[in-house]
Amino acid sequence: MTHVSKLMHLIAASLIACAPLISAQTSLHADERINGKLVWQAFEPQRLILQESSAVIYTDGRSRIRKVYGIVVSREGHIVTKASEIVGKKNITLRIGKNVYENVEIVGCDHKWDVALLKVVSNEHFTPVDFTEASEVAQGYWVVSNGSASRSQRRVRVGIISAETREIRSTVSSVILGVQLGSEKKDQLQIKQVSKESGAEKAGLKVGDVLFSAGGIKLTERSGLVKAMIGMYPGDLLSVEVMRGDKKISFEVELMPRTSGPKLTRNEQMSGGALSLSKRRDGFPRVIHHDTPLTKESVGGPLLNLEGKCIGMNIARASRVATYAIPVRELREIVADLRAE
Which of 225, 263, 292, 306 is the most exposed place for a label (fewest CB within 10 A)? Predict the structure, then answer.
């Protein structure tokens, strides 16, 4: 009997053990549900993998309240995680297994996928995840993720692949130019303020410049600038022309990620809103869609199959019934590109 067959028998046994209780009560006890303690026992092999090959990441110094998870991707201590949750933070520490590491560097970021590569500065050897060789995963497939975590133990959350792998388009522009515009006068968009450390500041835009065009679109109103950035990702370069006095000057401006999330729909508000959902939860070229009930602090870690192999990286809690993960094929490419920088 294969490991997966044994695991399915354990799951079935756990559910059968609970069956006599169903007729005696209107609902199952919490321990007997799909993410209850009795069912967790069937996923102990996966829990041990999460214990050694995923990281708990903190951004609050010594308070060590979990911000997000990460995936160990090399023996040397490279870890990938959700970029928008850690970029700009000054006190990044992490826990792998039971050990805490305070010397952590940000190696690079892929803003299109919202992935950051971290490096633990240590002489230790770590245990990376084992990536699956399969590039696709079928609907109905069981998957395992990090749930909550104590200072010494990981817990699992289980779910199934509940929809087709697909692109998740942005509902709003996910990028900003890095300028604040004054009121529109005579079809002119004049820069009132340039944000510090923004792409606009680095490119050389100044207060008083009048935006003439962006991405080849002549600008006479704000909607034109928004249109010019549709479909673009953080890190992309936008061609911008400005009038500075009587001179027209051209710039290549690196677009920065929008720090505020999209406006919440009524359904999202009913799903817990900003307190429950990831701030960045759309604008992904391709995702695995599964129903594992994670929190926004539980993304960033590996998505495992029943064999314990990594099939993706949990990247966003999208709604009450949906979590998104980057597929392993794309994740491999992201890791390779970031390590090569």
Answer: 263
